[in-house]
Amino acid sequence: MSEIMTAKDLCLWYGNTQALKNVNISMPEKSITAFIGPSGCGKSTFLKTLNRMNDLIPSVRITGEVCYKGTSIFDKSVDVNELRRDVGMVFQKPNPFPMSIYDNIAYGPRTHGTTNRVKLDEIVEQALRGAAIWDEVKDRLKKNALGLSGGQQQRLCIARALAVQPQVLLMDEPTSALDPISTSRIEELALQLKEKYTIIMVTHNMQQAVRISDNTAFFLLGELVEYGKTEKLFSQPKDKRTEDYITGRFG
Amino acid sequence: MINGKIGKKRKAYIILMRTAMILSTALTASLVIFLLLYVLGRGLPNVTLELLTTKPSYLAGTIGILPDILNTVYIVLATLVIVIPLGVGAAIYLTEYAKNKKVVGMIEYAAETLSGIPSIIYGLVGMLLFSNNFGTSLLAGALTLVIMNLPTVMRTTQESLKTVPQSYREGAFGLGAGKWRVIRTVVIPGCVDGVVTGCILSIGRILGESAALLFTAGFAHALNDIISGLVSPGATLTVALYVYAKEEGEFEVAFAIGAILMILTLLINLSASLVQKYFAKRRNI
């Protein structure tokens, strides 16, 4: 398995506050990598750095390197829109656009120039099937997406992200706003998706990390404390802080 | 203790205050109703088809307000055509692109101050700036109204842009959409209602404006099409009302115009709230 995304000596500041300190990590493709750690440890910030969503925050300053397939994503020649097409994102709270289910899915492909109706129909169906929501919505593609339940909305957002055929899917606590049943559906979905995509997921839920991830990274106060195979990290943590966290001594 | 002297005193006080409030409500309501009935009662009987469809004739000694109605329509259209792109464009730049929040704050504050200035001052400036250059004309009047309404249109648009959730923008950026595409496809559709409402309220302000136009647009009652209308002087309904009442003593005509303006204002406010309801309904599916 080759590495698809790597970070080298990555530091990030919000104004004068340092949120990430010398993060070094490399994530293999077609696997699930989970980021765990207490609130404010920098795991979401790091995730958002991977497709440069942090560009939207004016006060952010970054040093170090993040490479996607060997190319630095901060390089001037990189088109950030193309990067985000390859490295898609699913957010903590489902955020479908206030338009029809069809238009939500077609938004990405249309953005990147697909206008052919037949082709769009095909992409929409594939994406919805890929996100295991096709059967629930196939009869109401023209209805407003905001009418779906929270869990359905989140799968719709995953489908929307899949529709631009990304390589990597970043998920920022994708189940924290959902009920247990919706959560387990999203987890099943993530396991299916790793056949074709690389998934990098922030989670607050350590059981979730154990259930579905191949590798886990533990962040604390902006530092990457420990990173390795999930079963190893949870059964034989090397660092005292990791052990304290996963045994529930703080966090 | 509960039913003692203090209780009685308080009871009297409550009754007194309640009566005072009911009286002030009754007074306010009856003033409004009186004004409405008085103007409509004196005006509506004089609103005849002849008044609405002819121009005034000194030979026949008749008065018609068709030119004034058309002038009003022309000036509303001309003002909106200029003020909407300017105001909406400025609002989009200030909320979506501008980085220096201090300058944005200053501009917003200035715009709010501007919208509170007495309109006669706009008239004075408009006269020196526009009428002196293009002559007294509807166009000079429209340009003056553009300056007057620009802050309102800009601020209402800005406020409705700010109501579009950040998560929509993030979602679109996350799919690789560029800034302008995000604005065009996600942000602007989310704030159309604010823009439309701002425009409708501007129409109301334009209809009701007279002071600024007395200086700039003139008093003529000639029948024109929109092009020749804009470059020649002309009275709008409010200005015509002033002229007929103050200079010609034609109070029937003045009240007729007053009644028409009142009904128009009512319709405009009604359509503004309908638009808001329509969009609120669409948003909640």
Structure write-up:
The complex is a heterodimer of chains A (251) and B (285). Chain A is an alpha/beta fold and 251 residues long. Chain A has ten helices and ten strands. Chain A has helices spanning 43-49, 80-86, 101-111, 117-130, 134-137, 150-162, 180-193, 206-212, 230-235, 240-246, and strands spanning 3-14, 17-28, 32-36, 60-68, 71-72, 87-90, 168-172, 198-202, 215-220, 223-229. In chain A, the strands form two sheets. In chain A, strands 6-7-8-3-9-10 form a six-stranded mixed sheet, sandwiched between helices. A four-stranded antiparallel sheet of chain A has the order 2-1-4-5, covered by helices on one side. In chain A, β9 and β10 (223-229) form a beta hairpin. In chain A, α3 (101-111) packs across α4. Chain B has two domains: 2-46; 50-284, MetI-like fold, CATH 1.10.3720.10. Helix content of chain B is 78%, strand content 0%. Chain B has 13 helices and no strands. Chain B has helices at residues 5-43, 49-53, 66-97, 101-114, 119-134, 138-162, 166-174, 179-187, 192-208, 211-216, 226-231, 237-247, 251-283. Classes of the chains: A alpha/beta (251), B mainly alpha (285). The interface between A and B is medium-sized, with 30 and 22 residues.
Major sheet size, sense and barrel closure of chain B: none
- Main β-sheet, spatial strand arrangement of chain A: 6-7-8-3-9-10
Query: What do the pLDDT scores of chain A average to?
Result: 93
CATH superfamily of the largest domain in chain B: MetI-like
Q: Approximately how much helix is present in the residues of chain A?
A: 25-40%
* CATH class category of the largest domain in chain B: Mainly Alpha
Predict the CATH topology of the largest domain in chain B. Answer: MetI-like fold
Distance between the termini of chain B: 56 Å
Largest interface: A-B, 30 and 22 residues
- Written as H for each helix and E for each strand, in order along the chain, the element string of chain A is EEEHEEHEHHHHEHEHEEHH
Number of helices of chain A: 10
For this entry, what is the oligomeric state of its chains? heterodimer
* Category by helix and strand content of chain A: alpha/beta
Q: Detail the poorly predicted runs of chain B.
A: none
Q: Using the CA coordinates, give the radius of gyration of chain A.
A: 18 Å
* Percent range of helical residues of chain B: over 70%
Largest sheet of chain A: 6 strands, mixed
Strand content of chain A: 25-35%
| Mean pLDDT level of chain B | 89
Give a count of the beta strands of chain A, DSSP E runs of length 2 or more: 10
